[in-house]
């Protein structure tokens, strides 16, 4: 069993809802500081708020880019990344061009990722595959493109629009594909300690969840 400290540093505490208020972001960041989570993950418009609230802690600010559909052009995603970084984001979770991947336009997908990596200027970049929309072959292809582009992590899902989130099978496939060095973030539908630990056992090195507090409370009770 992981220690509470180690598990907390694997959790990106998340609120990327379109109706997230400043009060909700304040609560998110307060919880992130209390439990010393890895990140508070927010939409770009809330980066500056989160950065201010987290000042003095070692909790990072993560911004979602091209969220939730991934349909923006590479230049748009790169600009969105630069702006998020300028406001204080130190980690970036970007959605790939899913239609481009499914159309076999691998260079476009790679350009998309590389543009964000360049704009992030050395900050951590996680590439969201949206596994619910992909075949296993496409998942493998997306992982390999992200690895070749130089991303730090591949991430399972946005879990938006009723799409299913992370599965043990997908995390296992992703780990097999990218090897032992690259990070894997499991996200979507991870609402309890049991599920979080299953994802970690399968190869995840980060957990994206809006229920980080509940997961930590479960662990602390054991």
Task: Tell me briefly what this model is.
With 222 residues, the protein is α/β, with parallel strands linked by helices. The protein is 47% helix and 16% strand.
Q: Would you give an account of this structure?
A:
The protein is an alpha/beta fold. The protein has one domain: Aldolase class I (TIM Barrel), CATH 3.20.20. It has helices at 4-8, 22-35, 47-53, 74-87, 98-102, 106-120, 136-149, 168-178, 193-202, 212-221; strands at residues 11-14, 39-42, 60-65, 91-95, 124-128, 153-155, 183-187, 206-209. β7, α9 (193-202) and β8 form a beta-alpha-beta unit. It is globular and about 45 Å long. The mean pLDDT is 97.
Topology:
Elements lengths: L3 H5 L2 E4 L7 H14 L3 E4 L4 H7 L6 E6 L8 H14 L3 E5 L2 H5 L3 H15 L3 E5 L7 H14 L3 E3 L12 H11 L4 E5 L5 H10 L3 E4 L2 H10 L1
Parallel strand pairs: 1-2, 1-8, 2-3, 3-4, 4-5, 5-6, 6-7, 7-8
């Amino acid at each position: 069993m992981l220690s509470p400290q180690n598990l907390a540093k694997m959790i990106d505490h998340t609120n990327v809802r379109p109706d997230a208020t400043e009060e909700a972001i304040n609560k998110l960041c307060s919880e992130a500081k209390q439990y010393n989570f890895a990140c508070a993950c927010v939409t770009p418009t809330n980066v500056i708020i989160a950065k201010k609230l987290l000042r003095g802690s070692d909790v990072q600010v993560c911004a979602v880019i091209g969220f939730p559909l991934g349909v923006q052009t590479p230049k748009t995603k790169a600009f969105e990344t630069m702006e998020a970084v300028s406001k204080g984001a130190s980690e970036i979770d970007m959605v790939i061009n899913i239609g481009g991947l499914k159309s076999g336009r691998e260079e476009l997908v790679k350009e998309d990722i590389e543009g964000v990596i360049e704009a992030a200027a050395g900050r951590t970049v996680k590439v969201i595959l949206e596994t619910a929309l992909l075949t296993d072959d496409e998942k493998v292809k997306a992982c390999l493109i992200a690895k070749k582009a130089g991303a730090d992590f591949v991430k399972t899902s946005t879990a938006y629009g009723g799409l299913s989130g992370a599965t043990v099978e997908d995390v296992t496939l992703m780990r097999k594909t990218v090897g032992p060095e690259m990070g894997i973030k499991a996200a979507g539908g991870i609402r309890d300690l049991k599920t979080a630990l299953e994802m970690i056992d399968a190869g995840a090195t980060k957990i994206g969840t809006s229920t980080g507090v509940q997961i930590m409370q479960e662990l602390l009770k054991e």
